[in-house]
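This is your field. Have a critical look at both lines of this record:
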Amino acid sequence: MNIIFVTIAYPQNSLDSNLYTDLMEGFRGNGHQVYVVCSAEKRFGHESQITNSNGIEILRVKTGNVTSNPNYFTKGIALLRLQSQFITAIKKNFSEISFDLIIYSTPPIQYNRIIKYLKAKSKSATTYLLLKDIFPQNALDMGLLSKWNPIYWHFRNQEKITYKLSDRIGCMSQANVSYVLNNNSFISPSKVEVCANTLKDHGKINKSDHLEIRSKIRKNLSVLDDELLLIYGGNLGIAQGLDFFLEIIDNYKNAKNIRFLIVGDGTWYSKIEKFISDRLAKNVLLKKRVPANAFKELLIASDIGLIFLNPKFTIPNFPSRLTSYLEVGLPVIACTDKISDIGDIIVSEGCGFKILSGNIREFKDTIHYALNSPEMIKTKSVNSRNLFEKSFTINQSYQIIMNRWYPSQIDR
């Protein structure tokens, strides 16, 4: 089969693998020809080009700055131009190829013209939307848009068109499935399913290697063996509701047996950096985003993974960072809103704890329990790895996507 994946960001370096690179390599590993179309943003100085990575043809299209752009006007212009730029590049480079399966992910929601073009070009192709972001409702929740703003209604219309164009919609969790169906009555329930954030399963880490890596990294970080190291990795922005994290840091800044490690980028990075300095929180380590393999080593060196969500959300977000935590067997503390089901899944599978964002007393009780229950940490660690193997590996998402139309292609 010929499969095309349309996305904004696709890592250039194999060391920066993510859920999308892993999924595409999963398709390629099952004998399919895979093509990727993604953005080569102006800010990186890249030109349009085709490269081959592990047998996958990657078409990088020169565009404006569509991610990490603080100027909403120029970002909006870049997004409006993106569809034409992608279509032109596909016509130039993939004109002779007929695709069987078209996969695309949100954000952004503006893929309609591209998908229409690809469906018309390959008349028998089926389409699969990986719904990772429910926009523009998330922008309403964060106060970035208003229903009085015509831009909101433009994006809402784009969202509806995308759903209608999609033969199948894969959501991150059951709460996402329910939200999409409850708020879009035109969508048939048979069209929507859970297709979680997944990663390649590299196998369990050898215990002796685990201890060696853990000891080395903790020594480099000046973290003692008896200190509880809590790691937060990912975006640092408004969606994460990091005010609560700053409150936690302030409460534990004088703790002798607790360390925090923050790894990521985003609009809040400088604010967090200043807060740590102003509060003299010497037990907090702040690092810019690192390559995937280096991040995995930091996870191995840690004791608990942290997840934060803004309590204002009315949509059930499901941060992809959970998958990375589960892969290395990290127990998880999820500080979330009332809507997301990520905390419910963690608790039901015995992987960690669910805390309502802002409840500092419950967070303190949880940390006290963790400090005094090392066996509990070990048990939840095992449960985390078991959950990863059961529900969050590439093999699961591959079979979910393929089974609908191409069951004969699975395990050929």
